[in-house]
Amino acid sequence: MPPKPRFQTDDIVQAAFSVVRREGWPGLSARSIAKALNASTSPIYAYLSSMNAIEAAVIKKALELFHAYITAQRTGDKWIDHGLGYVLFAKEEKHLFRCINDEKHASLTRRFTRTLFAALGRDLADYGPFQGLSKEVLLDIRRSRWFMIHGLASLINNEWYSLANQEHVVMREGKNVRLEALVRDTSLAILQGHTQGND
After folding, report:
1. What global pTM score does this model have?
2. Is 199 helix (H, G, I), strand (E, B) or coil?
3. Angstrom distance (rounded) from CA 59 to CA 53
């Protein structure tokens, strides 16, 4: 009878995820995964077919955490909470944010994020300010807000602006503003910009 394996595929994925979370893609290798598992490198590929498969699993796991950040209740306003979660993920999970937004893995990320975007749309199905809007207008609103939120998240992730203390104040030259107020005000401006004249 062959010896019972000491770890499973999930263990390898979790170890790889932990490495990327701590060090980014440059830290990920069969050697770093093996070190995290206190094992040799040879069993790593026996469980997953290639490093590409491991990277895909890491991206999927990172996007699951991203989804949890986005859907966490913070203000009682779902759409604002989505935006806040997006930015806070970029700040608090710096390497994971970069891992799901790098050029090398763009095709994988696009595949997974289509599912995420649809799930967030379902989460907003009963959102008051969106009631009565056509699917096309609603999609335009959500995409426009995504452009704005992704830009803000990227600026904070790359430390163009800092996000300070428990109040989540966006620190910038001349004037500081609470993140919640910034997300709320810009989201409202986008909503109004797409719905004015549609009444």
Report:
1. 0.87
2. coil
3. 10
The per-residue DSSP string of 49-104 comes to: S-HHHHHHHHHHHHHHHHHHHHHS-SSS-HHHHHHHHHHHHHHHTHHHHHHTT-ST
Amino acid at 76: G
CATH of segment(s) 1-48: 1.10.10.60
Residue whose token pair is 């379902």? 122
pLDDT digits (tens, 9 = 90+) for 64-116: 999 999 999 999 999 999 999 999 999 999 999 999 999 988 888 888 888 88
Burial class (CB in 10 A: 0-12, 13-18, 19+), 70: buried
Give the domain ranges of the chain. 1-48, 62-195
